[in-house]
Write a structure and sequence with these properties.
Layout (H helix, E strand, L loop, with lengths): L4 E3 H8 L3 H9 L7 E2 L6 E4 L3 H12 L4 H8 L4 H33 L3 H5 L4 E6 L2 E8 L6 H15 L11 E4 L11 E7 L2 H11 L5 E6 L2 E9 H4 L3 H16 L2 E2 L3 E5 L11 E10 L6
Antiparallel strand pairs: 1-3, 2-3, 4-9, 5-7, 5-8, 6-7, 6-11, 9-12, 10-12, 11-12
Helix pairs in contact: 4-5
Length: 289
């Protein structure tokens, strides 16, 4: 026989929740009533749903997104539930650590210690020849950026042999701000040897990945070299600002989107190994040309 149904009031008391919360969980798709009276709309539950109701309530107190709550409570096995909760909490702690670092960075700026933060970056100019680039662009927020960069550069590197091979370090150009509120776009770029072959490859690839081919003229870059640990947000913000301060002091202006040039094997690098140049294309005053 079916388990006896319990009215919403009695069920709410057993679950130590309000009827309002139960109606919310129903609306969110997290805990549907066992039965809803077609005439009155009155909800009834099974006693076996009490544990799920309590679990949903506890997970909500962790600020867990609804989709992640559903993944946890829909698992058939307690061990799987525990693993999914552990994975979520690891993400929470990583985000908290990043916010703590950002708070320390902002405290340094607001307290006037900017020169102390920026002084550790050595800025110089380098000349880069003209390059044929295969590129992939995307509007992306900051939390999605690292995953997208790895995937996009991987796709470009896979196509490079059909474009005459790689001729320079890959880089990511930022055509507008990428943050938690602003989504760029960002452009992953890879220098290749053969423009005609690159255009044929891009044509075959279609627009599925927003792929383009462009020729970038010779550039002079103002840049600073950073380690793998410094690539993480917000440490990398200090590197960009250090370059901008140096440019202002030298009377230089930006002549294109800022970029991150990845010259080392990311997977093989340790936290303190140099992996990236933070750079701005620069235009010199007319008098100095």
């Amino acid at each position: 026989m079916d388990e006896e149904l319990i009215g919403i009031g009695a069920f709410a008391a057993r679950a130590r929740l309000s009827a309002k919360a139960l109606r919310l969980y129903d609306r969110l798709g997290l805990l549907a009533p066992a039965r809803v009276d077609e005439t009155t709309g009155y909800r009834s539950y099974r006693a076996g749903q009490v544990e799920r109701a309590r679990l949903v309530a506890l997970l909500r107190q962790l600020d867990m997104p609804l989709a992640r709550i559903a993944e946890v409570v829909d698992a058939d096995d307690g061990a799987v539930m525990a693993e999914r909760l552990a994975a979520y909490w690891a993400d929470v702690e990583a985000r908290h650590a990043a916010r703590r670092t950002l708070a320390e960075y902002l405290r340094g700026r607001l307290s006037g210690r900017s020169s102390e933060m920026y002084g550790k970056f050595v800025v110089e100019t380098v000349d880069v020849p003209g390059q044929v680039l295969i590129t992939e662009s995307r509007h992306t927020l900051a939390d999605e950026l690292p995953t997208w960069i790895g995937a996009a550069l991987g796709r470009l590197e896979a196509g490079a042999p059909e474009c005459g091979g790689v001729t320079g370090a890959p880089f990511v150009a930022y055509h507008a701000e990428v943050s938690m509120e602003s989504d760029g776009p960002a452009e992953a770029c890879l220098p290749v040897a053969d423009e005609a072959a690159a255009r044929e490859w891009a044509e075959r690839r279609g627009r599925s990945w927003e792929t383009t081919v462009r020729v970038e003229p010779a550039r002079r870059l103002a840049c600073t070299r950073i380690t793998k640990a410094q690539v993480a947000h917000p440490q990398i913000l200090a590197a960009f600002e250090a370059v901008e301060q140096w440019m202002a002091a030298e009377g230089l202006t930006a002549a294109g989107p800022c970029r991150e040039v990845y010259f080392a094997d990311w997977s093989a690098a340790g936290p303190e190994d140099p992996v990236c140049d933070v750079a701005f294309p620069v235009a010199f005053p007319e008098a100095s040309r």
